[in-house]
Amino acid sequence: MTVASDKPKVGLFVTCLVDLFRPVVGFAAVKLIEEAGCAVDVPMAQTCCGQPAYNSGDRHDARMIAENTIRAFENFDYVVAPSGSCAGMLKKHYPALFKGDARWEERAKAFSAKVHELVSFLADVRGMDRVTAAGGGSVTYHDSCSGLRELGIKTQPRALLASIPGIELREMRDPDVCCGFGGTFCVKYPDVSNSIVETKTQAIADSGADLLLAGDLGCLMNMAGKLKRQGSPVEARHVAEVLAGLTDGAPIGGRD
Amino acid sequence: MQITSPSFKQNARHALDDVQLQKALGNVRAGFIDKRQKAVDALPEFDALRDSARDIKNHTLENLDLYLEAYEQKVTASGGQVHWAETAADARSIVLDLCRTRGARTVTKGKSMITEEIALNDFLDASGIVPVETDLGEYIIQLRGEHPSHIIAPAVHVNQDQVEADFRRVHTHLPVDRDLTEPETLLDEARKVLRAKYFEADIGITGANFLVAETGSSIIVTNEGNGDLTQILPRIHVVIASIEKIVPTLNDAAQILRVLARSATGQDMSVYTTLSTGPRRPGDPDGPDEYHVILLDNGRSAMLGTEFQEMLRCIRCGACMNHCPVYHSIGGHAYGWVYPGPMGAVLTPALIGVEKGGHLPNASTFCGRCESVCPMKIPLPKMMRHWREKEFERGLNPATQRWGLGIWAFFARRPQLYALATSIVIPVLGALGKEKGRFSSLPFAGGWTKHRELPAPETRTFRQQWAQREALKQGGTA
Predict the structure, then answer these.
(1) Distance separating the N- and C-terminal Cα atoms of chain A
(2) Domain that includes residue B466, residue range
(3) Segment B27-56, tens digit of pLDDT
(4) Where in the sequence is the domain holding A199, given as residue range(s)?
């Protein structure tokens, strides 16, 4: 297949969790970006954004991984990731990682300027105000921290969800409060993380929604994992799955 | 006070199991957040004020030596005396010296985190001098033999019924059948007991929210008026403050005051904003005979010029901990030293060493809510990350963590090996978890599965599936 030359070229940064645990989110992202009038490709040289190393204080490995990512994506018009956390790392933290490095700083800045989180890309960059997916049922949306506070993602996913006939958004209490995932935090401090996610799953249950949505698979795996452990009937999916109408498969953590 | 920060994990476990504490922590979540939001919403220029407050402090920190010297000159000119204390021990011995030479037996205290930092109460007790806390929250925890669990609400971990029990235990001179079931009656009783103490005290010690270089004034903000009585009634007023409390002018202090109470309690202003400049002058209706300021460094000047300098902008409003999900879960004592929550996670390692305080900057989800509400726009998560970098450079984090991270990074830096390894591991995991769609336990995933299920992967990675799809397309068009 040849890419139509007039369409913007988007490189999909799949994110390691989507790549390894939930490929359907990647395909949903591809479908939505194509619907937004772009051509999508997936550079095979990508691995992870490097955030686990960066947030563990290992700047050297974080830099090596970042160089690899920048090289893999430099030739695209846009770099889009279905995660506020990874997109935040690429967009906000890569420039900090290369600060003062004459050879890399400008290169990193130019790269970061092209990076967008998926839903923000659709709504803010491509002006998408509705999706073609059909669906129904009550959903509740959790604002993942990095997407919300680093990238300002709050109204965009709600607006696109509202364009799907039959979807009812039931806001949970404190949707903007952390779910307790925090990357390696959840395994370094499991008891504290558990206390935070228990508060979150209570808010989810109280919302009365049947389906939990969010824009970050890390948070979703944490919340879905807790809901499943608690025997909750609430299912969880990445918001892109619903926006793309790819909801035939099992929800995160399986179907009972 | 004893440092228990190295046992953070056990402290946290203990806090999570503490029913009384968990009940009390509900008040933090319910109380502070909405009030702050309302105050912020009512002031359209709030964010611009934050910028202005940040800039004032940045300028001050860049010229700290200059402003400190100017401040000292003004204090001296107004008849007061400045004492420089490099360490906590220096500050304690200056206080003791003042007490001994003035024959002081009782010291009243306004609320002061710096006196917590230098562990002044224990020291005075051991030296035969009675310290009396006059802030209601501080008074309560003094009765309980505890330390503050929050920098502006020191007894936030205590429930009302516990206070009632403490008052009945200690105030044995009062009628047994008195009513202590309402916050007001508790407050009245504390007031009555404390009123006598103000007149007994020889020295009144307060902290400072600001030290003003322009005038040599110290400023405290309180809601109970106890600070005024502490500093006006005794013969001697001693201010103990750390060096970064300085601001250039009264105008600067006024600017920062506009964001302080709003961020802390959601008030436009605290009930009392009290300025003290030197001792009582001829013709003044009241005031102390002597006015002393102890300026404490205790590690702060070493933060200047480093990646932690911005922490010195902190005005101790408590908004970061009020909005912190970790603090909400475990309260302040689990952090193991004086300063809890996000500001403590940055400041504590600087003051007691990252070897002892290392857990604190790690025990954060980096959710960023603290930075988003900080009136001084301190990049708290960024500085916590800097502490993690220091730990990593010095090999202080646990070996299992380093090994795990090292193995992961080895692959993440090598895309082809990474693709190969994941294309082998993921299908195996996917097949194992296929039936249920998740794992309840898995080797090396105990930290995760202790409290939650681990969603299983699909049977092939996205990139395997994508490569196959692209290959089919290529085949189709050939």
Answers:
(1) 40
(2) 411-477
(3) 888 889 999 999 999 999 999 999 999 999
(4) 137-244
